[in-house]
Amino acid sequence: MVENRKQGHTSPVHWAPTYAAKRVNEESMENGKGTSREKELLGATDVAELIGVKETTVYRWCKEGKLPCLKIGKHWRIRRGVLEDFLKQSERPRTLVGQLDSFLRVPDSVLAIAHNIEILHRLDAAFFRVGEARGGLLVKFYAGEEYSEGELLSDFEQKGLEAGRLKREGRLLMRAEEEPLGGSRGEQLGGLIEEEGGEGRTVWASFNWVKPVQLQTALEQQRQLSELVNASQLVVKTAAIEEAIDEWSAPQLRRVQSAHSAIILASEEGLSLSRATPMPPS
C-alpha cells in the first residue's frame, strides 16, 4: 500500500497542527528523548488532550487509517513518534523545502523522478537545505551532467542554499562520481562515511541519473545503498530525470520504486510524495 500526498491538496485535519506539534515535541523534551520515547504508546484520550480534539475524532482517524494506530484488545494505541509525523504532515507547508522537511525521515532511502534537469536541481537544493537545517553533513555526488562543480555550487546559491559557506565549513562535500552508471556508488558512499565517521552527524547524500541507466545497474546500486542506510544514520536521495529511465517498462519502474522507502515525483505541474507501508490485514 502507498500513502500519497500532493502539494496543494487540502488536508482533512482542521485543528491548528503547528501548535499541536509544538505541544507534543515540548512534552517529549520534558520527559526524555530518543528511540524509546518515540515508541511510547499513547491512548486515544492522551492524544485528544495533547492536540486539542475530541476523543471520538482520534477514534475516527484510527478507523479510517489516517492516523496509524495499534489495536490492543479493545483499545487503540498510538506511538508518540507516529503522532509527531502525523502532525508534521498536517502542517501543509507551501514551499518545496517545507514539503520535503515534513516528508523526509532519518534514516531514509528516496527515489526522485524529475521532469527535467532544472527541476532535478531544485530538488537537490531543497533536499540539502533540509539536511542543513537538521545539522547534517551534505554530500553531492555528481557526474554525467554538463555542469562543472563551480556551476553546480553557483546554481545551489541561486536556489537558496549557501553552498559556498557550507563548503568552506566542511559541511558540504562535492564528490565527482567515478562510475555513475556502474556499481560503485555503495563503495564510494561507504568510504566517505568511514572518513567522516568521527563527526557524529547524519549524512545527507544525493546521487543523480541524468543519462540512460540499465535496470540491473539501478537495482544493484540501490541494493548497496540500502545496506548502508539500514546500518547507518543516512538519508540517501537518488534522483533521475524522466528521459534517463524512459525505456523502463511500468513493471520495471515498480521494481526500482519498491527498493526505496519513499518516492518523489516532480514536474512544473505538481509535486507528489509517497511512502510505502506494509499491506494491512483484510
Question: What would your notes on this structure say?
Answer:
By secondary structure, the chain is of the alpha/beta class. Helices cover 44% and strands 22% of the residues. It is globular, with a radius of gyration of 20 Å. The N terminus is likely disordered.
- The CATH topology name of the largest domain reads Rossmann fold
Low-confidence stretches: 1-19, 28-35
- Please count the beta strands (DSSP E, at least 2 residues each): 11
Q: Give me the secondary-structure category.
A: alpha/beta
Summed up, the helix count is 12
- CATH H-level homologous superfamily name of the largest domain: P-loop containing nucleotide triphosphate hydrolases
Biggest sheet record:
8 strands, mixed
Order of helices and strands: EHHEHHEEHHEHEHHEHEHEHEE
Rg from alpha-carbon coordinates: 20 Å
Number of individual domains:
2
CATH class of the largest domain: Alpha Beta
